[in-house]
Write the structure tokens for this entry.
Amino acid sequence: MKPSVIAIFASGSGSNAENIIAYSRAGADSGLEVALVVCNRPDARVIERAGRLGVPVEVLTRAEINDPAVMLPMLDACGVDAIVLAGFLLMVPDFLLARYPGRIINIHPSLLPKFGGKGMYGRHIHEAVVAAGETETGITIHHVSSECDGGAIIFQATVAVAPGATADDVETSIHALERTHYPRVLAATLSRR
Ligand code: GAR
């Protein structure tokens, strides 16, 4: 199996990025090779995590990420054939959607279309899930389109929200689901046989 060479785009803590990198290295046949991490926040913890694992990190401004003259040569130089979003909080520019059709994937920590759209990310979602009295929540892995959280769904997994659960509790169970499923689903969707 020929591995997919991916760039991970991230804005925050980077637990998913770290998990994907670990998975990609766990066996010769993982189906994934992480060439690069792209980050838009100079203070994001993902920079330290990726650096510790020896993965090159590019810290770029929003304007640079939206500039084809910056992004395309950089991604081409690393042989990137797919982009994986892992807690990335900017919209993906149209020129990247055109350059990587069907090969840009995101994970969203709710059961889309519930709790999706602008302003719905990370902890805000878990707080909204608890406030709405939901009895279950989950993760959605989906293709990225020009619509926020709107691309075709690839995979969903659910988890119960126990009575009295806090946003912290929900976040912990969501991270566990992400750890279990995201790298495996990425490899199955992206690797070229
Ligand atoms: C993850 O839970 C991811 O699903 C979510 O942000 C968190 C990032 O955590 N993404 C979104 O909310 C996208 N709308 P991490 O930086 O530790 O991987």
